[in-house]
Design a protein that fits this description.
single chain; alpha+beta; Arc Repressor Mutant, subunit A
Length: about 100
């Protein structure tokens, strides 16, 4: 997965905000993935069609963080969302 990738969220992925972030649930498997507030914000940005890199830049404009760490964390989260079948790289995109 690269910072240039965009994700498509699976139809069987349910997302619900909580008081301390969000829950993403794979409705086929019942697997629940907990997202902290930053992870939930990243989900929203990605769902709007931004690349991972664009999403990280938007978050860095809101939060004080090391850009290298933020990029690595975002890529790790996106890899997890794909591995749990909650999202997939968009068709024609290089993962």
């Amino acid at each position: 997965m690269t910072l240039h990738a965009r994700l498509s969220f699976r139809e069987h992925a349910a997302f619900k905000r909580t008081t301390d972030g969000a829950m993403a649930v794979n409705l086929h498997t019942g697997f629940c993935y907990t997202l902290n507030p930053t992870g939930a914000a990243l989900w929203d940005l990605l769902k709007d069609g931004r690349t991972i890199g664009e999403s990280v830049q938007a978050l860095l404009a809101q939060y004080e963080a090391d850009p290298v760490v933020a990029e690595a964390d975002a890529l790790r989260l996106c890899d997890a969302l794909v591995s749990y079948d909650l999202a997939a790289p968009r068709a024609g995109e290089v993962p």
